[in-house]
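Re: weekly structure request thread

Next one in the queue (131 aa):
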Amino acid sequence: MALELEGTLRQKLGVQSGTSARGPWAKQEFILEFPDGNYTSQACFTAWGQDKVQELDKYQVGDHIKVSFNLKSREYNGRWYNDLQIWRISPAGGEAAAHPAPAPSEPIYQAPPAPSISDMPADNPEDDLPF
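Done, posted below.
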C-alpha cells in the first residue's frame, strides 16, 4: 500500500549501518509533524538504503516535505511492530516551499460580534406575556 503525507521535518535521528548476509545496509529515521484535524501529530519514518539516506540529507529540520511511503507491520515474540518505509521524499508544493513560515500551533477562531441594542426587537404592545 503506497501512501503520501506532507508535513514539517522535526528531527533527524542518527544513521544506522551494518553488514548482513546480503551485504552492507544503512537506514535513518526521522520525525515528521503533520496536521491532523485541529491539532498536529508526529510519526517516525525510516529511510532504508544508502540512496534514501543521501536523499534525506538534502533536507534540514524545519523544511516542509512530502513523503511517499509504505506501511508495513511485523510480529516478533507475540508483539506487533509498524514500520513507515519511505520510497520518495520531495519538497512539499515544489522547490519554493522548502522553507515556509511556521504555522500557528493552535487554530485561530474569531467569534461573531456581540449583539447591540439595535439588534433587539422593538417593544410590541400586543405582547403581554411576562417572559
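Residues 2-93 form a domain with the OB fold (Dihydrolipoamide Acetyltransferase, E2P) fold (CATH 2.40.50.140). Residues 95-100 have pLDDT under 50 and may be disordered.
Next request, please.
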